[in-house]
Each structure stands twice: as C-alpha cells, then as structure tokens.
Design brief:
EC 5.3.1.12 (chains A, B, C); uronate isomerase, domain 2, chain A; 9 strands; Metal_Hydrolase (chains A, B, C); TIM Barrel; homotrimer; four-stranded parallel β-sheet; mainly alpha
Chain lengths: ~475, ~475, ~475
Amino acid sequence: MTSPALLSDDRLFPPDPTERAIARRLYAHVRALPIVSPHGHTDPAWFAENEAFPDPAALLIVPDHYVFRMLYSQGIPLESLGVPRRDGKPVERDGRKIWRLFAEHWHLFRGTPSRMWLTHALSETFGVRERLTAGSADRIYDRIDGCLRQPEFRPRALFERFNIEVLATTESPLDPLVHHRKIRSSGWSGRVITAFRPDPVVDPDYEGFRANVAALGEITRENTATWSGYLKALANRRQYFASLGATSTDHGHPTAATFDHSPGECEALFQRALEGPLAPEDAERFRGQMLLEMARMSVDDGLVMQLHPGACRDHNPEIFRDFGKDKGADIPTRTDYVRGLKPLLDRFGNDRRLTLILFTLDESTYARELAPLAGHYPALKLGPAWWFFDSPEGMRRYRETVTETAGFSNTAGFNDDTRAFLSIPARHDVARRVDCGFLAKWVADHRLDEDEAAELAVDLAYNLARRAYKLDD
Amino acid sequence: MTSPALLSDDRLFPPDPTERAIARRLYAHVRALPIVSPHGHTDPAWFAENEAFPDPAALLIVPDHYVFRMLYSQGIPLESLGVPRRDGKPVERDGRKIWRLFAEHWHLFRGTPSRMWLTHALSETFGVRERLTAGSADRIYDRIDGCLRQPEFRPRALFERFNIEVLATTESPLDPLVHHRKIRSSGWSGRVITAFRPDPVVDPDYEGFRANVAALGEITRENTATWSGYLKALANRRQYFASLGATSTDHGHPTAATFDHSPGECEALFQRALEGPLAPEDAERFRGQMLLEMARMSVDDGLVMQLHPGACRDHNPEIFRDFGKDKGADIPTRTDYVRGLKPLLDRFGNDRRLTLILFTLDESTYARELAPLAGHYPALKLGPAWWFFDSPEGMRRYRETVTETAGFSNTAGFNDDTRAFLSIPARHDVARRVDCGFLAKWVADHRLDEDEAAELAVDLAYNLARRAYKLDD
Amino acid sequence: MTSPALLSDDRLFPPDPTERAIARRLYAHVRALPIVSPHGHTDPAWFAENEAFPDPAALLIVPDHYVFRMLYSQGIPLESLGVPRRDGKPVERDGRKIWRLFAEHWHLFRGTPSRMWLTHALSETFGVRERLTAGSADRIYDRIDGCLRQPEFRPRALFERFNIEVLATTESPLDPLVHHRKIRSSGWSGRVITAFRPDPVVDPDYEGFRANVAALGEITRENTATWSGYLKALANRRQYFASLGATSTDHGHPTAATFDHSPGECEALFQRALEGPLAPEDAERFRGQMLLEMARMSVDDGLVMQLHPGACRDHNPEIFRDFGKDKGADIPTRTDYVRGLKPLLDRFGNDRRLTLILFTLDESTYARELAPLAGHYPALKLGPAWWFFDSPEGMRRYRETVTETAGFSNTAGFNDDTRAFLSIPARHDVARRVDCGFLAKWVADHRLDEDEAAELAVDLAYNLARRAYKLDD
C-alpha cells in the first residue's frame, strides 16, 4: 500500500493553519542549510576507506540499538536480528531474513523517532515510495541493496549529498586516529573531525582501566604511574586530537558529580585506582576529579567540554553477558547538577575560556537546574535534547522548559549524536521542523516577531552549533 | 440553568478543526467497543446479589474519596458528608442533605475528572438534562433516586447496559470469594473476575499481618510458620483465584524496591516478621523480596503481575484515626524504578512468561525510567496513567512522554481502577476521547497515517488490555 | 525598525481561532480589574518619599537580577552593567552607557519574561513605539528619562495609574517599618502593606543571626536569650507588623523540612544556635522547627503563612564575594514536600485557622506532591508559578499539572513577587492572559462552560488572591 503521507512537506508542523503557515516560512530559511554535526558516533573508517556499505540489514538494523531493543522488548530474540553474541554462538546472518522480520514488526515503531528517520532515509535517500510491510519487504530490500552497490551511495558521496559541512566522530585517547589521518591526507574535502572521549582512561570502573592508563603512558611517553605524569599524558593526547581537528571533548559519566581534591588527595586516589578496583564512592570521586582536570585543561587548550551524565549502563546483566555494551539496556536515572557541578563551577564557572556543554537524561532538570545554571554561568551552555529525548515531543519539551530562563543563546544548537549515518539528514530535518514549529507558535501568539523568529531558526539550525563548538575557525 | 455543553459530542477533542475532524473519525471506530476493565475495585457483592443501589449520596458521594477530599480541602467536615467515623460517633445519614451540600459546592470540581464522570453519569445513565446547582439539587436527587428503584438500574442490568465485556475486582488472599462463586453459579453471563491482591499477607506493616499469615495457613492447610510453607500457601491461593477467573495479581507497595535474598536470609527475615514489627528497612526488604517471589510464581502460573508503587498512605494521622484508610490522604512520592526493580529484572526481566505491568504516581519517571525500561525488557508493560493522573491532562502527558521511547505496544491499554461503578463508562470514554485526540494530532502533523491511527485507537481502547491481561483465552 | 507586534492585543492568546475568540471574551472580564499584589519586594520608601525614580538604567537594569544575569551568562561583566561591588571598586555609573550595552544585547532576551514585561513597560508606561535596538537605544533612553522627571511618573502616581488595590512589601522583623508608618500617616489613599519575613532571626545560617536575635530582644523588650522569650518576641513583632496592615508572613527556606521537637529539645537547639554556628543538620532542624512555630502563631494571630523553599542560594561564590546576595546565582533544587511538611501538617494541617501557601522551584512536585496535598488539607493553598516559572510556559504547566487534582479553589491567585515596580502591570496582565488562554482551551473542548470560565477568570485574577491573603477585611 502506498501512503500519501509517507513524507509530507508539512510533517511535524503545527496543524493550526496560522502556525503552520509561519512554520513553513521559517523552515524555508533553514531547510537547505548545511549540516553541522559536532557530536556523533559514526565510524571514521567509512570516510577513510570509502567502501560500499554492506546489505540493508547490516546498515540499518543490526547496529542500531534503538531499533533492535524495541523488537527485543516485544519478544524477538536479538539473535534473530543478527546482533552478534560475545561467545560467538551463531546468530542470523542472512540480511534479507533480518529485514523481513523487521518489516513484519514495523508497526511497533509507530510514533518513534526510529520510524521517522528510517522513513526519511527510505524515501529521500533510497527513493522508496511505498510503505514498509511484510509484503513490500523484499522489494524495498532489493532497492536499497541495489543502491548500496552504486558509487553514489558510498560514504563520501553520501556525505556530500547530505550537505554535511562538518562531522565529528568520537575516539578514545588510545586511538591512533589512523582513519582521521588518512581522511586528511586523502585530498578529500569533507571535514570529518575527531572528539576526545577519555572515559577508558579516566573512569576507574572502565573495563581495562589500568592497562589503558599504561598504554596511554606508552603512546605519550609520559610516566602515567604518577598523577602528574598522567595529567601530562592526557594534555599531550588532547593536543594530538586537536591537531587532527578536534574542537571538543566528551564525557559520559554516571552522574554529574565533580570534585576538587587537594593534589595530595588526587595522587593518593590515583595510586589506589592503579592498584585495583576502587570502592564505588572512590571511583565516583576519581571520575569527578577528572572532570575538574578536564575543565582545567580546556581552559588551557580551548577544547569545548561536553558532559553526558545520568545513564545507568548495562542495566540488564544477561544482555551484557551475551551481547555486550550499547545494546539498548542503558536506562536513565535522576541527576543532580546543582550540587554535582558546584566544585567545577566554583573553579571555572566564571571563566569564559571554558565552554562546558551539558546534556541530560533527566528532563526534570531542564527547568529546575540546567536552565538556571546556563542562564547564569558564562562557562555553561545547554546541549540539545539527548538520546531518548532526541524526538519531536522531547525537543518541544526542551524548548518549552529551557527557553524562558536560559534564552536561546545559552543553548548549543542541534547535534545528532548518532552512529547511524543514514539518519543524519533526517535527524537534523526533524530538529529544524520542530524548532520552526515551536517558533511559529510564539510568533502566532506574538511573543516573537517573525523576523526575529527567522533569525532564531537559523541560529538553532546552524550558527549556535558552530559557535558553541568553535567550528568557525 | 440548562447547559448546552452539558455533554458535547466533541468533548475532549482538540479545538483545531483539522485535528477535531480526525479525532471524530478515529473515535467512531472505538466509541461502541465493549469495555474491558482488567483492574478495579468494584464490589463483587453487587453482581452476586444484584440488589438495588441505595440512595444517590450513598452511591456517588459517601464512598468516593476523590469527591469528599476535595470538599474537605475546602473546609467541609467529612462528618457532614456522611463518611463513617471509626469510633461510631454520629455522621450525617440523610442522603438528601449530603447531596445538597455536594451540589452547593459543585463549582469546586470544575476541571476535575470527578466532575467529568459525574456529569457523564448524570446525563447518560440517569438522563439528567440540567446543570447541578443548589437550585436543581433536589430535582436531580429525586430523579436518580427514582431510577435506582427500577430494575434496569440494578448492578447486572447496568453492567450489561454499560457493555462491559469483562470486569475485574480485587480481593485479599484471605477472601473466600463467595461472591465470585455465586456469580459463576448464578447462570448470569456477565464476566466478573477477581484479582489477587496479597498486600495483607506480604506486607509486614499491614494491620494484622501476623494473624493474616496464620489465617492463610488455615485456609490453605499449609504451614505458614515456615518460609517454604508460606510460599506454598501463596501459590496455592493464587491457584484458587485463577480457578475463579483471575488473570492477574496486584501489588500496592510504598516503593518499587525489590530484593533477591538467599533462601537463608528469606527464612530469617520471615521469622522475624512473624515475631513482631520489623524495622522499616527490614519491612522494605521483606516486601521487596515478596515482589520477587510473586514474579517467580507468575512465571509458573501465568498470572499477570501489576505493581502500583509510590503512595505515602495515610499521610494525615487525624483523618486516619477518625475515618480510617482510603480517605483521600494518600500522597504520591518520588519513586526509583531503575534501581528498585533491578533485582527482579535481573532474574525475570528477559522471561517472556512474565508480564509485569508498572504504574506510577511520579510522572517524572515516565520518560526517564518507565519508557526506557518497558522499551527494552520483554517482561515489562506500562499501565495507563493512574490515580491522580487518570484525567485528560494526565493521559495526554502519559502519551507524550511514553510513546516515543516505548511505542504503543509496550503499554497495557486503559483500566479504570475504580470503586465507583457508575464512573466506568465515563472513564473509558474519556480515555478513548483523549487517545483519539492525541492520535489525531499526530495524524494532522503527519507522524502517523490515519489508517494506522485507527488501528492504534482500537488497540488502545480494547486490544492491548485484552492482550496484556491475558483476557483473550 | 517599528514592530507591528510590539504589543498585540492578542498576545499570549492561543492561535486557534476558536480558542482565541473565547480567550478574548474571557479577558474582557478581567483586563480592567484592579491589581491585587499580596506578595512582592518593592521598596516602601518609594511610596513613603514619593521621589522621582533615577535614570532608566538605575530603574530597569541595575537592580534586576533577571536582566543582568542573562547578560552575565553571555560574558558581559556585571561591573559594566553598574552592579555595585562589595569592595567599592569602580563600576559603570553612566546610565546611558549601561542602557546602550543592554540595548545591543536585547536579542538575548527573546522568549523570556523579562523581555515581555520590559516591552510592556516601554510601550504602555512610557509610550515607546519602536523596537529597542542599538540604533534606538538613545532615543528610548531619552524618552524614559524625560518621563521620569514628570510628576505623573512618581511612585504614587504610577501606583494609581497601575490601578493597584493593594501592594505588599516584605520586611525583616528588625525593620522599624518607618516607611509604612509614613505612608499611613501621609493621608495618601494607596494601600501599601508589609509582610513579615523572619529569615534573619529564624535561620541560624543567616548572616548576623546571633546579633539579629539580640536586636529582636531589644526591639520587643523580650528576653531572646531563652526559647520562650524568643518566641514571645516573634509573636510580639508579628503583632506589630499586623498593626501596619500585614496579613501574611513569608519564609524562604532551603528545603520544606519541618520538625516538631519537644520543648526541651527546642530550648537546647536554640541555645546552641545562639552559641555559634550549628552543624548543617541542626541548622536544618532549627529552621524546620521555626516553621512549625510560625504555623502555631498563625493559628493564633491569623497571619497567612507563605513558604518559598528550594533555592540553593549564592551558588556562585565568586559572584557572592564580589557582588553579594540576589545576583542571579540562586539555583533551584529538588524539594520534598510530602515528608518535609508532615510534622507541621500533623499538627495544623486540619486547622482551618491556618492558611499555608506553598510555592515551589521544583515543578516535578506540582502534580506529584503539591496538588494532592492542597487537594486534601484544609490549611493548604498553592501559590502561583514562582520565580523562574513566572512566565507563560511556566504558568501553563502549573495550571495543566495542578488543576485536575487541586481544582482552582485550592490555589491562591496570582502574585508578582517582584522588586521591579514597573513590571507589575505587565506581570499581572501576562497571568490574566495565560489563564484566559488556558480556560479558553477547556471551554473549546467542552470541559467547562463559558460562563463558568468567566467566573474562574475573575477568581484567578482577583478573588482568590484577596481571599487567600485575607485582604477582604
């Protein structure tokens, strides 16, 4: 069955005719703006090697935990979706079978962001003009599969077609960044940059922490057996990342706690972290100290700092045991920014050389904590609605609860935070549409003039991200 | 004064003409569907005995804590509303006087769900065509009173007129279920089933807990002085409930905490619970352990498990002393599902034989905790907006915050959770209207196609509840 | 550039034509009602002395922490905005320069309540008909400056022009209230009353607490070195405030915790508080005990009690060190009303002689805690959306989350809570418009009849505040 509304030009605009007309006019200012993607998790190897993507299932389903966790929640085994097991036991490898299973359950995604971007990708990227059903599954599979074999569906071609101005990936300090070096030396004009994600070497609970710290010492030729050597190694590595285009660091902590211990306490804590597992409170103290150290280094080297706290990782031990991390079993928890960030803000909150972009999985903090903090401290900006809230309703709640206290200028624009490359145009388009719809309402009830809203629409879609992430240079 | 809008056909539909037209079309698919009421607190004696309801006040006001607590909050003594005192001191017994007092304060209910269902019941069930005021109070009282004397206003006749397909009540494990047996043996075709509510025998803080456990032993002929005998007795009693149609259990805990102690710890904790009052932490541990035991039994016997946590019961000691439990003084508190449920989910979260339906009084958990949990664990479903949130705005917030992460299929449809029999048609109608209005918005902004929304409307009104509560069999 | 929408007659009304038409009709009932302002922080000296306000910057920018903290968050030093330093070091004193700096950054305020009331004041009070920009800054400055020199822009004239029926200020128990006495003896008809704000003498962490308690003893000739003398002094001072028109007290605590210690414990705690700094838990216990004592005194003397908890004051130590309190660095925190207020409510929650009006900075408590509490306890009322939430979206969320459980009658109407005198008409107008828009939606979807909504609009704008604050007498 074909669907007349498969991708309406008015999608996500308010139904009221006055608001919709304004939203259309605002959207006309932003629809064709280049994509600025300062935070994400695509694989730089795609752009370094520029090889064809594998089959549709391997591209769109198998690696996407948003997609397979929804199917899993309805009783479909991950094995049948091709998600690899850690023990190497067999899982489905036939992309077509996986795709059919997915298509049969497509109705489960009604109303979800996954459905939105997949529909957008099918329609806009692959030219599919019929609805995905059990009946159309094979036809659509074949169409995508055929596309993927064409040169214009290789990563670099899609990057250009998607009109991406800059795309940041995220790497560990231990990563040699060979792909980024290869991209740079290839002569290709696409701007793909890295971001410094130090969790493996600053979180004492991270798998392999001690070995990672040792490796960090080897890479940087610093003595990471001492606190001062460890800090030097990190500063050194940040410098290396910056030399390959990085403008930001990214920190995925369980909480927003920060600490400001004395140098002696830091040294002692660090030595105990090197010796063996820390007690949970000490691990928390160490991580929180490292946020402060990272802020201090940001003041020095100018890298923008991002903090993504609040996920209870790997909530499901059976899934973790069988399939590993990032399998849709990370669950948000309450987060306290007001007390948590205070030690860091006491030190650097008034320092304009620092930009600290905050994200949350606890929407109750938007109006209560994050907007008041960002509406006061020069060092703070608010990142966009994140992860579970990177969705039309989530984005609307973000604007409604953040704007009146923080304004628009203390936000950092949109970022897609995705590992699903094909979702990038859709995600930015959704954000632009939702923001235009939001602004349209405020124009319609005379809170903003339309010329102001048009300026803001461009800021939200483009300028704020460039500015917050220092991408203008 | 008559009110043209006493019960508009368009009530609760979005005012925007586009959305309203869609909502009307969607509602046409669901308005006449039978009522599935898998969770509630009506009195099975009504359907067993089928006697006439007493006067209007005794039917609609005296037993409804939503109604009398609002009047109480504005300074009206509960005695004057006929709420019985525990000490037997006199309270108002004249139904007409109570009704007049209620009618004089009817304006206090503007905007509340109580006003909605009472208006619906007056209009649709009793044919009242004027607004309730001090002036109309007597006329309306007489009309209702006259109706209640007619055979077509007896419980079974109303059950049929309300088009109820199945109605679940809730009983203690100590209840002999004589009414349910009588209904079954009466030859009446109405499907009235029980649900297993074990709080009196699994909550060590429950009044009479020790005597209750002893009584449980007598009823089941198990030795409830030992942990294993106690568990056997519970399993036995669940079986008895299932034999009288029960498909579910219901658990009303102060928190969502669960525990997975060793058998030795369980035995020791149980013995101490039998000896005397437990320390609060131990009572919490015992209750939490019992949730895990109940889940284990559900895996065995297939009963669907419902968890309703988060009420601080009997917050007002004076009201509790004078009037007892369930008098409008239960106040919600913050609830932590992510850490609380982990021990239970570690054991049974991936087991498709378990269905655990979660409710909340803490809306901040919808998007942060409940939707991510239900959108991942096969054993979890989300119950509808509950108690204080069983209202148009509450239902809207539920859909807006839950759907994008959990989808529609991880929700369990509507249930009315009411002891007010006459409110049942109104409550289901409100839910259907609000859901159709919600879906209409998403059709109007092209997030859903209308044929999909029509399917979903039927799911939300009918199929999901039947499926989640295993009522199809 | 002139702006056609500088102040639209339809501002803040819903864009849907049906809702907007209803909102207009409802607003016609309330637009000209007198302003009842039962809680605020204007300076009584203005009305006692009736001197001209200084220049535009000193009136509108320098004292307004909402305004300068937004500019500060974007990197503008407070010194350049004329905010005085504690160390007396120079700050900008040229009002015109400050005004220009403000005008250049006016776009930062898009979508904020500050922008709304400033636009309203410029347009309605000063007759400005062009948009504020760098280009128009001087012209607008000159126009305001010229106005301020006219007698019709003196405080009393504006008070009358603003149609203020009653205006409450807030004073410390140590304040001799000379301005209020002067206003009373002046023969001027304006009703300006005080409110009793005892934080300086009941919060042991308040700067100068011990000296303040001693001063309280001197003023009242009670022995404030004993618990009983201290209580007598407070009761005495409340009486004095009441004699100058006060109908309320105001309490700005970090949490909502209350305590009900034995007299012996109170005496001991008080003695320790007099001796020196209390441990944080003891300071909390003392403050919480004092809330209970204040409630007890309210039962006796009839003063309405207001509780404003939840701000983490002076979060930014550098700002506090250099500029002092109330500089935009107070950040909300989570607040627990259910457990916190229980000791107080156990004592006085059912006592109709007490009116306790609750405010919050934690919106997650609206539906979960505050509406259920206010919808039950006769002593409780909910204050309006407060501080960061005194804004169109904040007010809308308040009504949407509070009304279905608490109704309208358990709320206390609007109050402006402002120290910005010129913002008062705008703030009340915004509240009236948002409430009319809210009611219009409920009329449009048939939850209310329009005549009911018209009554409610008047209640929300006028009657409820008069009644809750006992201003009718």
